[in-house]
What we know:
Layout: H1 39-71, H2 75-111, H3 117-126, E1 132-138, H4 143-154, E2 161-167, H5 176-215, H6 221-244, H7 250-280, H8 286-299, E3 303-307, H9 321-331, E4 334-341, E5 344-350, E6 358-360, E7 365-369, E8 373-375, H10 379-387, E9 395-399, E10 403-404, H11 411-432, E11 442-446, H12 447-453, E12 455-459, E13 462-466, H13 475-485, E14 489-492, E15 498-500, H14 506-517, H15 520-536, H16 543-568, H17 578-597, H18 604-614, H19 616-632, E16 643-644, E17 647-648, H20 652-674, H21 678-699, H22 701-716, H23 738-744, H24 747-767
Parallel strand pairs: 1-2, 1-7, 2-3, 9-14, 10-15
Antiparallel strand pairs: 4-5, 4-6, 7-11, 8-15, 9-11, 12-13, 16-17
Amino acid sequence: MLLLLRSRSKPTTEPRTRRQWGAERRSEPLSIVHPVPSGAKITWGRVGIVVTILSWIGYVVSTIVREFIDYGGNFRFTMEAFSYLVVVTFLTFSALMYLVARQGALLRFRDHVRAPRGMIDRHFADTTSERLTVLIPSYAEEPDVVRLTLWSAALQEYPDLHLVLLIDDPPAPTDPEVRAKLEATRRLASDIMESLAAPRERFQASLELATAELASGPVRRRSVKVLLKEYRAAAAWLEEMASAEDVVDHVSEFFVDQVLMGLANELSLTALALEAALEQGGLPDSGRVLELHRRLAWIFRADLTSFERKAYGSLSHEANKAMNVNAYLGLMGHVWRPNETAAGIMLDEVETPRPGDIVIPDSGYVLTLDADSQLLRDYCIRLVYYLEQTENQHVAIIQTPYSSFRGAPTRIERIAGASTDLQHILHQGKTHHNATFWVGANAVIRKRALEDIVEVENVAGYDIKTYIQDRTVIEDTESSIDIGSAGWALVNYPERLSYSATPPDFGSLVVQRRRWANGGLLILPKLWEQVRHRRHSRTRVHLVELALRVNYMASIAWASFGLLFLLFYPYDSRLLSPLIVGAALPYFIAMGSDLRACGHRFTDIFRIYGFNLVLLPVNLAGVLKSIQQAFTGEKIPFARTPKVRDRTAAPGLHVLVPYLIVLFSLLTAWRDFHQENWGNFGFAMFNAILASAAISAYIGVRASFVDMGLGVLNWLFVEPKPKAPAKQVATDDDTIDWAAILYYGDRRLARDLRRRGDRRRRLRRSEG
């Protein structure tokens, strides 16, 4: 039995990312099924919620109210007390929401019962399941990373699985290196299809033979021996592929050990059961034998292709992931005829296909998957099985919030991964309170639900369909509100079945976290509209659900500004109280317990605090961008940050601010020491020490000075943009561009009208 649990991680001579001191040593992921929490853990969770609430009430009564009753207060003290109370209240509210969501997760983990494989196999044998289309948007991704994602999805067990790689790179790059990477990405789908051809044909033929044989008689030992041979062959094929893989980092190690060998071990376990049945003289019935044959055929049956929207002038070219997915969703279920025009290739819808047309079949389910994510073996079949239960017909989106790849080689990736693992728990708890949000790395979506929220606009004679809103860069959060407003529900499946990459350095983390901080405030009005609509329709809106949703969308804003006030404003020492610590203590204890349960260290709570200190300017930048967008109505794009050797350079200002936090904290501590204001002194020194440690560990002193120097250079020297040559209808030799004239009529006017249409559509969406 131990042989079934072997790992096939293969050593390689290729260089890995240099492993830092303090990085993660553990490479094996956590269990797919969450451990059942003890009764004591659930009880202490309730105690923590009560202590947090009572501590806040005690602080308001014993400190704020008492100070005004006993001593009164001038205008300055009154404003300080009011602002301090607001900051403490909002921060305590966020801590309380953490405890509430965590408590919901514990209850779900306690009550979750995993559906047996036999029950799932029987369901799909008796039910004609709808097609599942996997959409993987990719922009300038490394082909090796995308390849692992494609393989993890291609090996999913599902009766009718279709994978589409949505390549969003410019279709005709001039840089030879960029062009070579694009061509490698384009070949991925066909390469995987070619690799799957042999096992697909073998196991499909075996299924057909077994179906014919069992239709004419009962199960015989020979039939079980054939099935056993096929399962051993499938496991051997996966093991051979695992042995041939180059393990260059912890992500590829996960792919080999958990995706390939995880599936191989599961198939080997089935083979072991079949072998035991033969030895013990008991044979499975004919239905079970056919189900096991279908399983092998479905694992290797996936159909893969790629699509590039920028090759067609009639599709939206807006530079974001949401419109990349929307472009393909809008084509599904129709036949399209490419039509070459002076404006490029246009796609015209036709009724009857002919050779050369593009036929894009419709799908009952759509799985969106980020190009740097991986799925474990039965992600699709378990989530679709859940959706197809009678009691879940109202569920539109189901997902497993992604976890981080283990074995992170850098300290910042380890801590960012730890915060991701905490979010996985919190998202599970939100489902307990009907406050689920779509986390865009992966999700299975009912296509019917998307049709209920689609918006259609005509731009230059072509319909542009928007299913997933792109007016903010957190499109999944806004779509969660849209789905809920349309009467559908969202669910987080309480298992760990998906993993996604974590930024390995501070520069790339800045890009990600600034994106996460931008947009929540803009979506809040939609939430209020949804609440009003539900109350009007007499649908109960639970206070806890509303509080969790508001906290999810706005907590980055108030936490960032609150921390800013606490760091840089010298509040009166009379406002301090041990009860503030009492309100925060359950939150930090619970977080430490959750970190330890996820395989991290209890003391990582201090590292995460320092981590959030150095991310303060990043979060503030994202919030300010949201406010700017609210006033201007123009969407704020994020530029790709420059690369410095093997890392991403961070904006100079985002690196400078953490140093300012340290210096100002030290200055505050020096002043409070001489004033014998020991509470403020301790808080200032605490921030200075943790921020200094975070700068050294997560940014790097040398790298920070390089980034600040680059920031100064980029500010001083701006490369002028070359002016585009004016387009003329007539060429130098007076040849008339007749095709352009016939197509546009007035070329310049048509181009201006199209641009106005695009801008008008963006403004409508941002004001919506």
